[in-house]
C-alpha cells in the first residue's frame, strides 16, 4: 500500500519516494520469494498427495510429472534471476543529469 501511495500518487514529493524505496524493494523481494516458495510447496504437495504412485516411479501416462519438474526448476531459476537483478546496488537506476539539477 505504501508503495502504491508513494509512487503513484502524483503529489508525493521526491524525498518521500526516496524514503520509501528501500522498504519497497525489501518487502517486494521478500514477497516475491515467499510466493515462489509457496508455489513450489503447492506443487510438491500435489505430487505427493494427489499425484498417485506414478509420480514416484515417473511412469504417468501423460508425462505430467515431467511438467511439474520442469515448472519447479524454471520457477527456481526465474526467482534466482530476478533476485540477482534487483539486489546489486550497481544495477539500480542512477539519476540522470536532468534529475540532479
Automatic annotation (TrEMBL):
GO terms for cellular component: membrane. It holds the Pfam family Cytochrom_B561. It is found in: Membrane. Keywords: Electron transport, Membrane, Transmembrane, Transmembrane helix, Transport. InterPro entries: Cyt_b561/ferric_Rdtase_TM. Its main location: membrane. This is Cytochrome b561 domain-containing protein. It comes from Diploscapter pachys.
